[in-house]
Amino acid sequence: HGMILFSNQILEIVNFCMNSLRSATRAVKKDAALLLDNASRSSLK
Q1: Is the pLDDT of residue 23 over 80?
Q2: Phi, psi of 29 (to 5 degrees)
Q3: pLDDT tens, 13-22?
Q4: What is the DSSP string of the chain?
């Protein structure tokens, strides 16, 4: 019975990590898009 609880905890931790990674990559993509946008704008000037 304890093993089921244990694996549930692991699943929750894994889900939490995956969500954190997802939001982190979303933020990084947003930053990268902004950087690229700024770079292309400054190169057009």
Answers
A1: yes
A2: -65, -40
A3: 999 999 999 9
A4: -HHHHHHHHHHHHHHHHHHHHHHHHHHHHHHHHHHHHHHHHHHH-
